[in-house]
Amino acid sequence: GKLGLRADFTRGFGARHRALLDPLLGPLATLHAGNSAHAQPIDYSQRVNATLFRLPLRTPERAAISQLSSRAVTHTEVLELLSTLCLSLGEMLLFTQSLTHVEVCTLAADGVV
């Protein structure tokens, strides 16, 4: 099978199977809203002018039951990955035409972005 999912949110699979996507999109709505009392959640029925990558990082408990990967990722590994990504962004953007902005966010256990 495929080890990932690409879905058109406004029509096609995303529109027909919304309940399957909601657990994946919930944390993203929180990141989009940020800590602002005036922020509006993302309306996924409308076009979003962005590309989103969600890294499927797993605790040991989640990795043990995952159908995609049994590899757990520690908090330290995540921070190292994000640090490496941030340090490499300049070089990564050098040869892109449509990618002009990268935003890296973390969501703490208490829900603070």
UniProtKB/TrEMBL annotation:
Protein name per its UniProtKB record: Sacsin/Nov domain-containing protein
Pfam families: SACS
Domain Sacsin/Nov: 42-109
An MF annotation (GO) of this entry: Hsp70 protein binding
InterPro entries: SACS/Nov_dom, Sacsin_chaperone_reg
